[in-house]
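(Protein data)
===
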Amino acid sequence: MIRHVTSLICSKVIADERTKLPSFIEVLSGASFGLTGLPSKIPPLILTSTWFYNSKNKRNIRFRIGIIVPGTEKKEILLEQPIVIGGPVGRTANINVEIANLVAEHEGEYLITVETKRNTRWKLDSEIPFLVDLIKEPKSNAPSPG
């Protein structure tokens, strides 16, 4: 059996050479991106998803990442691919995916979704929110030249 443990977004993942354990740099839990205008490119993100398995038999599942834009219920699929998880019983596996080239067109809460398909149906395993706000340019009190 494979079970989702957690998913998060961060800016970088580094694996320790000796232990092979990951370190998640700049975890963006409930992150807010302050942008000066829309549309605007969102900095690249890493989605990392941790899975627990308790069978030595490898399992094939389909994995997909989506995004829900504020003000819509429509999900855009960013990635869909098969993955194989398995190995020593009682271990965890991390799946790391770079999410690049996202463009924010609206202010508000965006949701990154993580889903798996094991038989015939997709199952929502995680939703990770992040906020896009517009930064107001500071007004200058200095007189205009001229």
Notes: The chain has a mean pLDDT of 84. The CA atoms of residues 30 and 130 lie 5 Å apart.
